[in-house]
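agent> step 3/5: call structure_predict on target 'Peroxisomal biogenesis factor 3' (Ranatra chinensis).
agent> reason: downstream docking stage needs a structural representation; sequence fetched in step 2, passing through unchanged.
tool.input:
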Amino acid sequence: MFSKMRQFFYRHRRKFIVGGIVIGGAVFLVRYAGRKFVEWNEKEVKELLQKSRKQHHFQSTESTCNQMIISMSSILKDEVLSVVNTEELLTKLKSCDGDRLCTWEELKVSSFTQYTALMYSGIILVVLLRVQLNIIGGYTCHGLSETNNGIASDSTLQGDYLSLSQCLVSSGVKDICKIIKKHVTDILKDVSLKKMMSLKDIEQFFWSVQERVSNDPDDPLKNLSRFLSNANSARFQTKDIAKLYKILSETVEVLQTEEIISLVSSCLTQGFSQAVDRIADCFIPKRTGKTQEDPDSLTDCYTNINSIKLPMAKVVPIIYGLSKGNLVNEEPELWIQSFISMDKLLAFGANLYEAFSYSGQ
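tool.output (status=ok):
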């Protein structure tokens, strides 16, 4: 029996050898494919977790950024209202002190200067903090998986870096108000308080101010880095001054690009357009509804809103109300909220975060 089996195996030895090789190869390939599938699956899960963690961290960064903007915006607004003080002029008008016409002329210039400076200061604040927070956020995100990253764990360094933007409130507002007032005065000096103003005229005013400021050598939008405090090592608490200077240098480089200058200018124009939309509510006469004599009066009022005109003397209180946030149904901080929610700035911040999350060292 054994001899028959030996003969059988001997006759079919090539088949058994080839079959063994095929089966062995198949087993090896199955096991290899299994290991590769497990590795691929683990890699996909790891990447998914990293992506989820990064997304969560970015959202947290955006939330922190928005909170900081809102917090600092109230301080910024108080500073603008203090530098361009309209309350004293209103007090003079109420008390009938001095030349009322002269006081009205001053109030006209001050009201427009105040709101225009508020808008310029607001967009600069939003851009500075969004750039700073997303650079820090990108570095920190990179540092979550890189133990040699000095920024992720150095809260003192982060605090020193973020404190640089306080220069905008401490001294920057005065410079902005000075530049704005100069150009507003030139534009409005020949505009009578009796002149009838349409929404188009007001929009043209804001456009003229932007054009004049953009041609000014001291245009704040073209010198955003000037609103960061001087890098004096004596005022910093962090020990890693070299790392702080490196981040500051990168921040200045970002703020000086043509891309961001164009972006800020575009967002400011959009902000003024939204302001004109809010002013339009004050141009609409208050009506209770249609009347039998004129059933289409209410519809015509909305259709022909651009044809409605008010004397400059009535426009001044409206502009004053924009700065104070006390127009009809006006939210107190709507002027800064409009900049916070602009899609262009949100997209820019996301791109900046993404870039620095890969470049962090």
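agent> step 4/5: record observation. Residues 187 and 208 are 8 Å apart (CA to CA).
agent> proceeding.
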